[in-house]
Amino acid sequence: MSEMFYEQDIKDLIRTKKHLFLDDEITSNIDDIKIFNEKVICQGKCRTDCLVLDRNGTVMGIEIKTERDSTQRLNKQLYYYSLVCKYVYVFCHDKHVPKVEKILKEHKHDHVGIISYINFRNKPTVGKYKQATPSPFRSPYHTLNILWKYSLLTMLRIIRDYPKYYNKNAIHTFNKNGHQNELATKGTQSLRMKKPAIINQIIGFIGVEKTYQLFCRCVIYGYDNRWQLIDESFFDVVKNGVIGIYEEER
After folding, report:
1. CB 104 within 8 A of CB 74
2. pLDDT, tens only, 114-151
3. C-alpha–C-alpha distance, residues 166 and 93, integer Å
4. What are the respective helix, strand and coil percentages of the chain, to the nearest 5?
5. CA distance linking residue 231 with residue 223, whole number of Å
6. DSSP conformation class of 136
7. What pLDDT, on a 0 to 100 scale, did the predictor assign at position 180?
8. Who has the most CB within 10 Å: 12, 65, 112, 196?
9. Per-residue confidence at 205, pLDDT binned at 50, 70, 90?
10. Rounded to an integer, what distance in angstroms lies between the CA atom of residue 50 and that of residue 81?
11. Helices marked H in the chain — which ranges?
């Protein structure tokens, strides 16, 4: 087995052993799940090994510890993962399990799960050693803070416009280009808004659970695999995401 699991390894694991993650609310079709490696969170304080996003609003974080890795920084890493992710796992070689269990117990990471693997005939044999539970420290603020300010402003403006433009009669006559031009020439008040204020307004408008759903859908469909914004489609992604989270509750 390679020294590290990469995106395709984790995706293959989800595809072939999807039953492992049903209790973690990773339940959508594989096309509606996106996996990012080496993504920085919490304003650069932590680099995640793997983030798994499901369009239903679930964010799962996986910290990978191969046979040769150290667990010295694991406590701090799990602290930051827990601010962003609903479910957090340590994916480790079987030899690390006792050390990981000790760290979880000593630092009260009771919600963190463990997935372990061993090499059997040159292939990894994987099993869930400890089930994760929802992180009590997760915050929609820290989750949204991963996004760039432009993306957040786009989300906020579309959310605020929803009552005006997204009723059943207006959806099909929505003037996308007109609003894109408006976004490109945002008023000074919007431009001067600080990122924390934008984030708090988004959460205030749509609530915590819809914030997680919108975040996941905007990233899954509006960003490429390298976390680069797909400019030509992001506006429509946000628009459809906002419509979707409101339509689904009806």
Report:
1. no
2. 999 887 776 778 899 999 999 999 999 999 999 999 99
3. 50
4. 50, 20, 30
5. 9
6. T
7. 39
8. 112
9. very high
10. 10
11. 7-16, 74-84, 97-106, 140-144, 149-165, 176-184, 188-192, 195-206, 208-222, 231-247
Strand partners, 53: 34, 59
Rounded distance between C-alpha atoms, residue 34 and residue 23, angstroms: 18
Amino acid in the structure at residue 13? L
Alpha-carbon distance of 158 to 198, in angstroms, equals 12
The residue with tokens 């984790």 is: 10
Q: Are 206 and 214 in contact (CB under 8 A)?
A: yes
Tell me whether strands 113-120 and 87-93 are parallel, antiparallel or unpaired.
Answer: parallel
- pLDDT value of position 164: 64
> Which pairing describes strands 33-41 and 123-130: parallel, antiparallel, or unpaired?
unpaired
Residue located via tokens 């945002």: 186
**How do residues 74-86 score in pLDDT, each as one tens digit?**
999 999 999 999 9
Closest residue by Cα to residue 81 from 108, 101, 109, 107: 109
The residue to which tokens 């930051």 are assigned: 80
Q: Which two tokens stand for residue 50?
A: 């793997």
Given a cut of 50, whether residue 187 has pLDDT beyond it is: no
Q: What is the DSSP letter of 160?
A: H
Sign of CA dihedral 189, 195, 199, 200: negative
User: Could you give the domains of the chain?
Assistant: 7-130 (3.40.1350), 140-247 (no CATH)
Q: What is the pTM of this model?
A: 0.85
- For the chain, the residue count is 250
